[in-house]
């Protein structure tokens, strides 16, 4: 009997070693066949466990599990974990339901993968996760750190940060993963202040933690903070991951920070990241927005597997730099390469046609969206076509297009209204512009730029009463123009100024220097009639009051003074192009 037991143990050990050496499913089947031929039945558990935790063999594990006469808690836990690893969360949850039917005792190893399965199907089956959480509470597993982490991740993904924080506070020992989940959750909600507070409190940070806080600032377009965190990482000697480098390059593109972007590019080459197509696309975007199209094209051509994102970036880049023909050539190359264009591709190529006034080509491309590429036009595409027709002076055609394709002007947005009003002003089509303006008022559109376009149209056409009415509406609604923005890069550091900005660390010094400069200009202007000064002062005060401007200095003058005050290698950047905000 002892010899038989010893032989069985030795056989089990040999089988276990053989299982661990399996490389193919055929080898696994051979071992299974050998087990079935033995005079005694070794436990099938090691075989099933090995297959379930290896995605390549999971289908075999599933077949084994389905044919078992007797299933244990351990085997159920193994299969639930296997389903999650194989990206089959619904089957994992079904497996848990079968476990409940079999009346087996659940343990802490059951719920960690189960909650992860619920997180994977959160959008469609949120209630399932809530039910599983109820089971966790009922069975007393709330303080298990692994289950707690999984539940916090579930609620963070659901953007229920109140519940996530409640669970977070209940866990006595919090690891870096748990802290990072909280930072990431608040970042996805847009609450960067809370995310930053938690990040600063973290006793330990890893590269994923840094990635979470940088992504949080990137989502709200606070690109200065993105670059500040990137520099902090570099100063601490931490190696950023590819995601962080992409965020930093994107920030440089929006700020127009060419020198800093080139420095980050050189670091990416050191880290061997440049083969990453997403990172290369970010580089194309950076160099395009900074006007360095030769560099952008060089980086683009070096991308081995060009996806739609890379093609979109280069087409858009060439378009914003004024070469519509090159954009069209690149679009043709994209099609010939077998890459399917998407909605963004057509926004970019239609924009290129708009600025070059290629009406026929633009209309042909728009029609091909549905007929050739099976892409349904969105409001952005309609706006591009209206802009294309309007800029080319074809305002009647633009109106017909709106009626036939968009169901009438009542379905337009601010972009379409702006395109029409701007063109009506340029081409003197006040009758059409008047109809558009009436629709703007009836729709309750509150875009300041639209009101200014209508005001200028009426004023230049001599419709003074209408222009005055718009001015009164602007004052009544207390509309304000976005503050002018200028950006300067000094010694690799990006400095950003808004009109009236008093929060800059060197605001006092800049203000004093600016005041001295203005005093010098005033004293040197000997041709100014002193008797006219009081009238000019009163007129200026009235104008400033009516426009609701309280800027102490313009953003551009702040840049000039800052450059002269600090010195160094300074380069003024086109913030209007780079960040899309109004540049003064």
TrEMBL record:
Origin: domain of life: Eukaryota
A single BP term in Gene Ontology: RNA modification
Database matches in InterPro entries: PPR_At4g14850-like_plant, PPR_rpt, TPR-like_helical_dom_sf
Keyword Metal-binding: no
Key words of the record: Repeat
PPR repeat start-end pairs: 72-106, 175-209, 307-341
GO molecular function: RNA binding
NCBIfam families: PPR
Name of this protein: Pentatricopeptide repeat-containing protein
Organism phylogeny: Eukaryota, Viridiplantae, Streptophyta, Embryophyta, Tracheophyta
């Amino acid at each position: 009997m002892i010899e038989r037991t010893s032989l069985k143990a030795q056989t089990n050990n040999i089988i276990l070693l053989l299982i661990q050496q399996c490389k193919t499913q055929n080898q696994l089947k051979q071992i299974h066949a050998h087990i079935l031929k033995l005079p005694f039945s070794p436990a099938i558990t090691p075989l099933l466990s090995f297959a379930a935790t290896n995605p390549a063999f999971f289908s075999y594990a599933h077949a084994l599990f389905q044919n078992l006469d007797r299933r244990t808690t351990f085997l159920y836990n193994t299969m639930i974990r296997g389903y999650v690893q194989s990206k089959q969360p619904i089957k994992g949850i079904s497996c848990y339901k079968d476990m409940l039917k079999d009346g087996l005792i659940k343990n802490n190893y059951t719920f960690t993968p189960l909650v992860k399965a619920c997180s994977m199907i959160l959008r469609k089956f949120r209630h399932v996760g809530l039910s599983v959480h109820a089971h966790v509470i009922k069975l007393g597993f709330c303080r298990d750190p692994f289950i707690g982490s999984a539940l916090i991740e579930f609620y963070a993904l659901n953007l229920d940060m109140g519940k996530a924080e409640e669970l977070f506070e209940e866990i006595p020992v919090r690891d870096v993963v748990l802290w990072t989940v909280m930072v990431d959750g608040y970042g996805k909600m847009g609450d960067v202040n809370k995310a930053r507070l938690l990040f600063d409190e973290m006793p330990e940070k890893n590269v994923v933690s840094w990635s979470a806080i940088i992504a949080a600032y990137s989502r709200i377009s606070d690109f200065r903070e993105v670059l500040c965190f990137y520099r902090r990482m570099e100063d601490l000697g931490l190696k950023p991951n590819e995601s962080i480098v992409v965020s930093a390059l994107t920030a440089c593109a929006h700020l127009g920070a060419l020198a800093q972007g080139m420095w980050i590019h050189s670091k990416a080459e050191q880290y061997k990241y440049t083969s990453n197509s997403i990172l290369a696309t970010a580089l194309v975007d950076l160099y395009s927005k900074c006007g360095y199209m030769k560099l952008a094209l060089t980086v683009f051509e070096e991308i081995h597997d060009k996806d739609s994102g890379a093609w979109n970036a280069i087409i858009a880049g060439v378009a914003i730099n004024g070469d519509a023909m090159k954009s069209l050539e690149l679009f043709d190359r994209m099609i010939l390469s077998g890459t399917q264009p998407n909605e963004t591709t057509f926004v970019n190529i239609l924009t290129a046609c708009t600025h070059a006034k290629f009406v026929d080509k633009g209309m042909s491309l728009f029609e091909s969206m549905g007929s050739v590429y099976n892409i349904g036009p969105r409001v952005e595409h309609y706006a591009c076509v209206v802009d294309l027709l309007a800029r080319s002076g074809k305002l009647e055609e633009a109106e017909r297009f709106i009626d036939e394709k968009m169901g009438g002007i009542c379905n337009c947005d601010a972009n379409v209204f702006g395109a029409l009003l701007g063109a009506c002003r340029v081409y003197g089509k006040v009758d059409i512009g008047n109809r558009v303006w009436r629709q703007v008022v009836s729709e309750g559109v509150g875009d300041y730029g639209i009101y200014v376009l209508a005001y200028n149209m009426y004023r230049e056409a001599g419709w003074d009463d209408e222009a005055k009415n718009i001015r009164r509406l602007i004052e009544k609604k207390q509309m304000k123009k976005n503050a002018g923005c200028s950006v300067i890069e000094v010694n690799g550091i990006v400095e950003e100024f808004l009109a009236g900005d008093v929060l800059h660390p060197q605001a006092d010094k800049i203000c004093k220097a600016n005041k001295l400069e203005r005093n010098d200009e005033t004293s040197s202007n000997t041709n100014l009639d002193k008797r006219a000064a009081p009238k000019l002062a009163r007129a200026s005060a009235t104008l400033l009051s009516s426009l609701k401007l309280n800027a102490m200095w313009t953003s551009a003058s702040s840049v000039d003074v800052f450059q002269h005050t600090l010195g160094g290698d300074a380069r003024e950047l086109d913030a209007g192009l780079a960040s899309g905000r109004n540049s003064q």
